[in-house]
Amino acid sequence: MSTVYDCSRQDSREAGLAAAAGAVRSGRLVVLPTDTLYGIGCDAFDPAAVRSLLEAKGRGPDMPIPVLVGSWSTIDGLVFSVPTQARQLIEAFWPGGLSLVLNHAPSLNWDLGETRGTVMLRMPLHPVAIELLREVGPMAVSSANRSGHAPATTAQDAQAQLADSVAVYLDGGTADKGVASTILDLTGAKPVVLREGAVTVAELNEVLGEDVVTK
């Protein structure tokens, strides 16, 4: 049975965050608001929970799950190295709607799908998400919808699609942007935009001082 917490009320927000943290630590799924869309998430280091997330969405490991973090410094322990371009982009757009694909640290014990040694990282600009992430650590988070269906911009949208596969729903109102994050791959010789979303290509070019490659 799922529980929905209204995070616009302080008492309900505190109870919801405590319930969500407990759910994540016990290997269950939660839905949380972000600045772009609602996400369905779990402990990034719990392979069974990640498999449950993929099952809830109705998709396979061929589409790896991104990881959300609660601070800039968290990524230092998750990736092989943080290139200068990544630092520049993090300073400019985090927290916010930019996801960075980097080579993950080989020592990490996680299974996010067929990542080919990479991980997609983002720090969301939403106080509820940040508070939960700082409490439980990195979370594997994907858009809170069934595969092939419309992304959720409200907790109600997410619940209509995911129902009781999720233990806790944190209702933070309507997502501010209602569009997915921009995905930038920094694992090659040049930055490559895999998806343009909340951050424009022009904004990326301005920070990097060069034209990124678009797919």
TrEMBL record:
Ranges annotated as spanning the membrane: none
InterPro entries: DHBP_synth_RibB-like_a/b_dom, Sua5-like_dom, TC-AMP_synthase_SUA5
Main localization, broad class: cytoplasm
A Pfam family of this chain: Sua5_yciO_yrdC
Enzyme type, top EC level: transferase
Domain YrdC-like as annotated: residue spans: 14-199
Keywords on record: ATP-binding, Cytoplasm, Nucleotide-binding, Nucleotidyltransferase, Transferase, tRNA processing
Reactions that this protein is recorded to catalyse: L-threonine + hydrogencarbonate + ATP = L-threonylcarbamoyladenylate + diphosphate + H2O
Annotated coiled-coil segments of the chain: none
GO molecular function, one term: double-stranded RNA binding
GO process annotations (BP): regulation of translational fidelity; tRNA processing
Top-level taxon in the UniProt lineage: Bacteria
Cell location: Cytoplasm
The EC number(s) this enzyme carries: 2.7.7.87
GO cellular component: cytoplasm
PANTHER family (UniProt xref): SUA5, THREONYLCARBAMOYL-AMP SYNTHASE
Family from the record: Belongs to the SUA5 family.
UniProt name for this protein: L-threonylcarbamoyladenylate synthase
Organism for this UniProt entry: Kutzneria buriramensis
